[in-house]
TrEMBL record:
Protein's name according to its UniProt entry: Monoacylglycerol lipase abhd6-B
Stored InterPro entries: AB_hydrolase_1, AB_hydrolase_fold, Epox_hydrolase-like, Meta-cleavage_hydrolase
Superkingdom in the source lineage: Eukaryota
UniProt organism field: Ananas comosus (Pineapple)
Domain AB hydrolase-1 residues, every copy: 50-286
GO molecular function, one term: catalytic activity
One Pfam family here: Abhydrolase_1
Length: 318
């Protein structure tokens, strides 16, 4: 299907326009090892405003994931920095490293290049895995962390134990990287608590062609790196105040993983479970998710983060 007739391309352009209308601009940062990070940054950055980094999940790009959140977060007084993770959108890397630690180092390298030294962080699903590593590797840079349906405490043995709807990485890749309409329908049913009743095949094929055909090999390798030999005792405990947000009906990362992470981080962590929502809680309940994000950053007990913008945060919440 030509791009002039593509519903997916049209939507992608709408999201891009929304980012530009919100005062953001896209830039490409080339790192020392040749990796390129495509990142949206403020057109007119204000260093007196707190920086907030938003990391998308596996099935999205920066613009598709975060467009609905721009208005409330900007009105709250944040400067937003929204990268495409490697092999999503406009970001890529020539080397073989597929770990979330490498993703984390590339995110921080890009932030450093655009002049951001300290920031809060919100990560959805795979973006939460990367965000967790950012917080672990750079504790002096990250103020607070929000993890949305991010199963960072999963173990490889959980697949064989039946915790997930898939039993191995190959099955997971077949669903998370859909190349056929029936696989995309399966993914939507899996991630949404209330999936759309009608999903026309022509639209599904268009979406797959535009959004799911690039970097399939590299994304499959990301999944392997994420899960292979993963053990909870190897996971570092982050020290920043952390908020866990989870959809009660999540079938990708079951709610048990939220409770496991809460126990692992202990008193340093808060948890919110949102009813009538699945893994795509950020899309199904955006207003509720955004409310919890803002309330968490407002309740920091560290006024220097906000530099006088607490009034803005209060006005958004009320």
């Amino acid at each position: 299907m030509g791009s002039c007739l593509s519903v997916t391309v049209a939507r992608d352009r709408c999201y891009t326009r929304a980012f530009r209308a919100a005062g953001l601009r896209a830039t490409d940062v080339t790192l020392g090892d040749g990796a390129t990070v495509h990142i949206w940054v403020p057109r007119l950055p204000d260093r007196s405003r707190p920086a907030l980094v938003l990391l998308h999940g596996f099935g999205a790009t920066a613009t598709w994931q975060w467009a609905p959140y721009l208005g409330p977060l900007l009105r709250a007084g944040f400067d937003l920095y929204v990268p495409d993770l490697l092999f999503f959108g406009g970001s890529s890397a020539p080397g073989p490293d597929r770990s979330e630690s490498y993703q984390a180092r590339c995110v921080v390298g890009a932030l450093d290049a655009v002049g951001v030294g300290r920031f809060g962080l919100v990560g959805v699903s795979y973006g939460g895995f990367v965000g967790y590593r950012v917080a672990a590797l750079y504790p002096g840079a990250v103020e607070r962390v929000v993890l949305i349906c991010a199963g960072v405490c999963l173990e490889e043995r959980d697949l064989a134990a039946g915790l997930f709807v898939v039993s191995d990485v190959a099955d997971a890749a077949g669903i998370l990287l859909p190349q056929r309409p029936e696989k995309l329908r399966q993914l939507v049913r899996l991630t949404f608590c209330r999936p759309p009743r009608v999903m026309p095949t022509c639209f599904i094929r268009d979406y797959i062609q535009v959004m799911c055909r690039d970097y399939v090999k590299e994304k499959t390798e990301l999944l392997h790196a994420l899960i292979h030999d993963r053990k909870l005792p190897d996971l570092p405990r982050i020290t920043q105040p952390t908020l866990i947000i989870w959809g009660e009906q999540d079938r990708v990362f079951p709610l048990e993983l939220a409770h496991r992470l809460k126990r692992y981080l202990d008193e340093n962590c808060q948890m919110v479970v949102i009813k009538n929502a699945g893994h795509a809680v950020n899309l199904e309940k955006p207003k509720e998710v955004c409310k919890h994000i803002l309330a968490f950053f407002l309740d920091s007990g560290s006024p220097d983060i906000y530099n006088g913008h607490m009034v803005n945060l209060l006005s958004v919440l009320m």
